[in-house]
Design a protein that fits this description.
There is one protein chain. The chain is built from 17 helices and 13 strands. With about 550 residues, it is α+β, with helices and mostly antiparallel strands. The chain folds into 3 domains: about 180 residues, Formiminotransferase-cyclodeaminase, Chain B, domain 1 (2-Layer Sandwich); about 170 residues, Formiminotransferase, C-terminal subdomain (Alpha-Beta Plaits, 2-Layer Sandwich); about 200 residues, Formiminotetrahydrofolate cyclodeaminase monomer, up-and-down helical bundle (Four Helix Bundle (Hemerythrin (Met), subunit A), Up-down Bundle). A hairpin with a 4-residue loop joins β11 and β12. α1 runs antiparallel to α2, α6 packs across α7 and α13 runs parallel beside α15. It is globular, with a radius of gyration of 28 Å.
Length: about 550
C-alpha cells in the first residue's frame, strides 16, 4: 500500500517563552511516525509556527496532544502580539503532501476538530476546504475581532462552534481547524519602521486590496454599496493575503503575506510586486523571510525567473540554484537561511539513511570496492551515465555564456536543463539500484514454513527481481536519451569543449551497455517469460542505437579536433 503523507501546521499563541514551546513540541515528538520539521517562534508576533509531517493517524494524534498542552500552558487573557489571533492553538490546518487528495484530507480535518473538542476541550471553527458553513471558509472571517471579541461572538447563534464547547473559555479561546493547499507564509523586509507604509504596500498587492474612498485614497470617506457595506478596490495579486507590521526584534517593518496558492502567485512574483510598490513610495525592499517551510519547486521556480531576467543558464545544480534564489530574494537578510531546514523535501529527507550519492568520490569508490555485492555494476552504470549527461550539461552551460553568442543563451540554457534532468535522474538511480538488490535479499530472507508463507515469499522474490530489472533498464533509457544533448553539444556547442562532449558519449554508451548486463543477469530468474522477452528486445534496440550514435558523435568530434 502506498504511504499517505500529510502536513500539519499548528500555530500557537506563544513566541517568547521557549519552555512553553518546548513542552508543546515535546508532546508532538512523543508520537511515533511524526517528523517535526520546523519550529519558528517570533517574539514580536508572540506566535510559534510548527510544521510536522507523517501518516494521517499519527499526525492527528500529535495535533491533539499539542492542542491539550497549549490549552494547559497558554493563557489568552494575557496574550499580546502583532499577529491576529483568537486561541492558544490558534489555527491547525492539514495539508495534503503525497498520495492523498484534498477530498481525503477534509474528513481528517473534521475528525481532528472533533477530537480537539472532546479530548482537549477546545472550541473549534472549521475553515478553508473543511468549512461546514460557506461564511467560515475564510480564516480572516472566522477570526474577525480576534480574541477580544470572542465573549460576545460566542453568544450569537450564527457563531456557535462547529465542535467543542459553545461557551467562552478565557484561557484557550477558539481554534480554527482547516484543510488547505500548501501555504507559504512569507515576510518582505523594508527599510522603514513605518507600519502605515508597510500596510499601504500590503494593500497594493493583496487580493483583497483596500477600502474604496472618495477623493483622497488615504483619508477620503469610505464608499459603500446600497446595503451599507464597504466597497473594496482589489489589489494586484491573486491568492495573496497581507498586512504590514513592525518587528521590534529586527527594527524593521515588514509586509507579511500568506501565499495561499503558489501556482497562481509564486513567491518571486510577490517579492517583485512588493519591490515595485515600495519603490513607488520611496521605500526599498532589503530582503525577505520564510516562516515555516517551502516546497523545493517554489525555490527553483524563483531562481529560474531571476536567472532568465539576467539571460543566464538555468541548467545548473539545485544546490547552486538555491544559493542564487536565497540571494535574489534576500532570504538571508535577517538570519542565515538553511535549505536543509526550510525546504520541505530536504527536511523530510534529512531523517533518511545516508545515500551513496552523498558519499565523497573516494568514499563511493571504496564502498564499491569492498566485499559486499552492492553497490555493483548497476549503480556504477548509473554513475557513468550521470557523468556523461553532466558533461553535456557543462558544454551547454559554457555555450550559453560564450562571448559573442549572447543571443543564443536561451537555446543553450534549454539544452542544459534537459541535460540536468537526465543526470539528476541517473543520480537517483544509483541508490535505487542498490535498494533493489537489497530488496531481493530481504525477500529471500522471508519465512517459508507454511504453504502460504512459501507462496508469499515466492511472490515477493519475483516482484523484487522485476524491480531489480526495471531500475537498470531505466538507466538504459535515460542514458540513451542523454545522447540527444551530447550529440547536439558535439555539433553546435562551444568548440573549445567538444572533447568533453566526446567523453560524455563514451560514458553514456558504457552506461547503457553496463546496465543491460544487469538486466540480463536478473532476467533469467523471472518466471514471466513474455515480460522478459519484450524487455530484452527493447534493450537490444536501445543498445544498438546508442552504439551507432556514439560512433556518429565521435566522428563529428574527430573532424573538429
Amino acid at each position: 500500500m502506498i504511504n499517505q503523507l500529510i502536513e500539519c501546521v499548528p500555530n500557537f499563541s506563544e513566541g517568547r517563552d521557549l519552555s512553553v514551546i518546548k513542552q508543546i513540541t515535546d508532546a508532538i515528538e512523543s508520537v511515533y511516525g511524526v517528523k517535526l520539521l520546523d519550529v519558528d517562534p517570533g517574539a514580536a508576533t508572540n506566535r510559534t509556527v510548527v510544521t510536522m509531517v507523517g501518516a494521517p493517524g499519527p499526525v492527528l494524534d500529535a495535533a491533539v496532544l499539542a492542542g491539550k498542552k497549549a490549552a494547559e500552558l497558554i493563557d489568552m487573557s494575557k496574550h499580546k502580539g502583532e499577529h491576529p489571533r483568537f486561541g492558544a492553538m490558534d489555527v491547525c490546518p492539514l495539508v495534503p503532501v503525497s498520495n492523498i487528495t484534498m477530498d481525503e484530507v477534509v474528513p481528517l480535518a473534521h475528525k481532528l476538530a472533533e477530537r480537539l473538542g472532546q479530548e482537549a476541550g477546545l472550541s473549534i471553527y472549521c475553515y478553508e476546504h473543511a468549512a461546514k458553513r460557506p461564511e467560515r471558509r475564510n480564516l480572516a472571517t472566522c477570526r474577525a475581532g480576534e480574541y477580544e471579541a470572542l465573549a460576545e461572538k460566542l453568544k450569537k447563534p450564527e457563531w456557535k462552534p462547529d465542535y467543542g464547547p459553545a461557551t467562552f473559555n478565557s484561557r484557550s479561546g477558539v481554534t480554527a481547524v482547516g484543510a488547505r493547499d500548501f501555504l507559504v507564509a512569507y515576510n518582505i523586509n523594508l527599510n522603514t519602521t513605518s507600519t502605515r507604509r508597510a500596510n499601504a504596500i500590503a494593500f497594493d498587492i493583496r487580493e483583497k486590496g483596500r477600502k474604496k474612498r472618495e477623493g483622497n485614497p488615504l483619508t477620503g470617506k469610505v464608499v459603500k454599496d446600497e446595503k451599507g457595506n464597504d466597497l473594496w478596490t482589489p489589489g494586484k495579486l491573486k491568492c495573496v493575503k497581507g498586512i504590514g507590521w513592525f518587528i521590534e526584534e529586527y527594527g524593521v517593518a515588514q509586509v507579511s503575506v500568506n501565499l495561499t496558492n503558489i501556482a497562481v502567485t509564486p513567491v518571486h512574483e510577490c517579492f517583485d510586486a512588493c519591490c515595485e510598490s515600495a519603490q513607488s513610495r520611496g521605500i526599498r525592499v532589503t530582503g525577505s523571510e520564510l516562516v515555516g517551510l517551502i516546497p523545493l519547486g517554489a525555490m527553483l521556480d524563483a531562481v529560474r525567473y531571476f536567472l532568465k531576467k539576467q539571460q543566464r543558464s538555468t541548467g545548473i545544480s539545485d544546490a547552486e540554484l538555491i544559493k542564487i534564489a536565497v540571494k535574489s530574494l534576500g532570504l538571508d537578510d535577517l538570519y542565515p537561511f538553511k535549505p536543509e531546514e526550510k525546504i520541505i523535501e530536504y527536511a523530510i529527507a534529512g531523517s533518511s539513511s545516508k545515500k551513496l550519492v552523498d558519499l565523497t568520490m573516494t568514499g563511493f569508490v571504496h564502498e564499491t570496492a569492498c566485499e559486499s555485492p552492492a553497490p555493483g555494476g548497476g549503480s556504477i552504470s548509473a554513475a557513468m551515465g550521470a557523468m556523461g549527461a553532466a558533461l553535456a550539461t557543462m558544454v551547454a552551460n559554457l555555450s550559453s555564456h560564450k562571448r559573442g553568442w549572447d543571443d543564443r543563451w536561451e537555446e543553450f540554457s534549454d539544452w542544459a536543463d534537459k541535460g540536468k534532468q537526465h543526470h539528476d535522474e541517473l543520480l537517483r538511480l544509483i541508490d535505487d539500484d542498490t535498494d533493489a538488490f537489497n530488496a531481493i535479499m530481504a525477500a529471500f530472507g522471508l519465512p517459508a514454513s507454511t504453504d502460504d508463507e512459501k507462496a508469499a515469499k515466492k511472490e515477493a522474490i519475483q516482484a523484487a527481481t522485476k524491480r531489480a530489472i526495471e531500475i537498470p533498464f531505466r538507466v538504459m533509457e535515460v542514458a540513451h536519451a542523454s545522447m540527444d544533448v551530447i550529440a547536439t553539444m558535439a555539433d553546435i556547442g562551444n568548440p573549445n569543449s567538444v572533447s568533453d562532449a566526446g567523453v560524455g558519449a563514451l560514458a553514456a554508451r558504457s552506461a547503457v551497455m553496463g546496465a543491460f548486463m544487469n538486466v540480463k543477469i536478473n532476467a533469467k530468474d523471472i518466471e514471466d517469460k513474455a515480460w522478459v522477452t519484450n524487455l530484452l528486445e527493447k534493450g537490444e534496440k536501445i543498445q544498438e542505437n546508442v552504439i551507432t550514435r556514439e560512433a556518429t558523435i565521435l566522428a563529428t568530434i574527430s573532424n573538429k579536433l
